[in-house]
Amino acid sequence: MTPALRTLLCSMPKAELHMHIEGSLEPELIFALAQRNGVALPYASVEALRAAYAFTDLQSFLDIYYAGASVLLHEQDFYDMAWAYFLRARADNVVHAELFFDPQTHTERGVPMATVIQGLKRACDAAQAELGISAGLILCFLRHLSEDAAFQTLDDALPYRQHFIGVGLDSSERGHPPEKFARVFARCRELGLHVVAHAGEEGPPEYIWNALDVLKVERIDHGVRCLEDPALVQRLAQDRMPLTVCPLSNVKLCVYAQMAQHRLPELLAAGLCATVNSDDPAYFGGYMNDNFIATFEALPQLGAQDAYRLAANSFDASFAPAGDKARWRAALDACFAPSAA
Ligand code: ADE
Ligand code: ZN
User: Fold this and answer.
1) Domain extents for the chain?
2) Judging by DSSP bridges, how do beta strands 242-245 and 219-222 pair with one another?
3) Does 92 sit in the ligand 1 pocket, CB within 6 Å?
4) N or C: the chain end with fewer CB closer than 10 Å?
5) Is 249 close to ligand 1, i.e. is its CB under 6 Å away?
């Protein structure tokens, strides 16, 4: 990759739309919070924890990810975690972030919903005020749990309705198809919440169809397995349905053996509204710019036009107001103007 392309990837403004805030907990912060809160960890050191990050599939990652989140107890812990992410996001020229959070991971341990949401919301407000980053929260239901549990979570969260913009669906994909959550998603749509879902990360194209047709999502998180079904690719292109793709995640979780095998170029060539995101950056080896650099380095057919398209897609696919989107798009255009190259 040329130094000019690398500079462009790093300096261009971008939105992050697929980032689990609990997946931004770096091992150092996990240990600091464990000490602060008197939580025992099954790892002797930061190095021992990091050494355990050798995943074979989604579930092998989720087991460690949920263990890491067990150090979060107080509102300040949620604030500190999100603030650390926002500092990284600013360094990567992320101007807008829509963050997933997993309340059931915390409420099941006795942490009140208010603690989770208020800590994260306070960090989002500080990101806007102090860093100029706009941020929204997306509440994810854990799909390995029941739809009743999702309804209970929604009820618990509704007193804080003004603090989150939408709902999502994450955790173990295989065996937990989107239609398991048809009724709770219908209720969320009635409430005016945005709706997104992980689909087609490890699960088959059928899960993407059902996320679209049953859950009526506005974005598909991951979605890379759509390429196995040409009719689905056509549908996604026709609807300009965004896919929040996470390249480093896909390699770490063995969706692709190596980055050189990632199919982002095909998604773009098919005219899909693909975006690049970091998923769980503390676990997968990098934040936004690390994802862009690793992808463009391994796939030399990607160039400046693709970089522009990915950043423009990230703004288009966001749930931000039209005025903000236009402003970010103008900043992106300025970045790609000939005099800026
Ligand atoms: N929770 C955190 N990261 C996830 C991922 N990549 N897929 C499903 N659930 C998740
Ligand atoms: Zn994810």
Assistant:
1) 3-340
2) parallel
3) no
4) C
5) yes
